[in-house]
Amino acid sequence: MQHAKRGESGATLIVTLIFLVIFMLMTISLVGSSVVNVKVAANQQHGVEAQNAAQQAIEQVISKDFTASPAAAAASVPVDVNGDGNADYTAQVAVPACQTSKPIKNTDLDTTNADDVSCFIGNGNQNTGMLTASGAGGGNSLCNATQWDVNASVNDSATGTSTTLHQGVAVRVPTGTACP
C-alpha cells in the first residue's frame, strides 16, 4: 500500500501548477487588453472634444458680421471643455473664404419678411420697381447671396489630437460687398 502513494504524490501538484500558470497568463492578457481599450476610448474622447472645440470657435466667428472684414475674423479661440475655467484646447480659425456670390432676384424676396425689406429696390415701398413693363418680375435686388467656407483647426500636442473642421455659411450681403 505504501508503494501506491509514492506514484500519486507529484502528479496533482504538477497539474495544479500548470493550471495556475494558464490562469495567470489569461489574467495578464485581459489586463493588457483592458489597458489598450482605455487608451482607445481616451483617444476617441480627445478627438470628439477637439471637433467640438473647433465647432465652437467657428460658431463664435460666424455669430458676428465676419463678411465686413474677413481677415479680422481669423482668430485663436481658447475653449474650456470641462468647465474648470482653464482652456483645454485652442482652436485656430482661418480667414473665412467667400466661395460664391450671386445676386438675389427681386422675385425671390418676400414683402412680408422683415429681412427681405431692405433688399427691395425702393426699400419695401409699394412702388418697388420690381415689375417690368410686361408685368413680369424684374431684375436683381439690392442684396447678394454669398457662400462662405469657415474652418478651424485644433492641434493638441499633449494628447496628440489634430482635427480640422469646415463649415459652410450662407450670408446675405448688400450688392457690391466684395467676395474675394
UniProtKB/TrEMBL annotation:
InterPro entries: PilX_N_dom (IPR025746). It comes from the Bacteria. The keyword Transmembrane applies. Keywords: Membrane, Transmembrane, Transmembrane helix. The chain crosses the membrane at residues 12-36. Residues 9-56 form the Type 4 fimbrial biogenesis protein PilX N-terminal domain. This is Type IV fimbrial biogenesis protein PilX. It comes from Cupriavidus basilensis. The lineage of its organism: Bacteria, Pseudomonadati, Pseudomonadota, Betaproteobacteria, Burkholderiales.
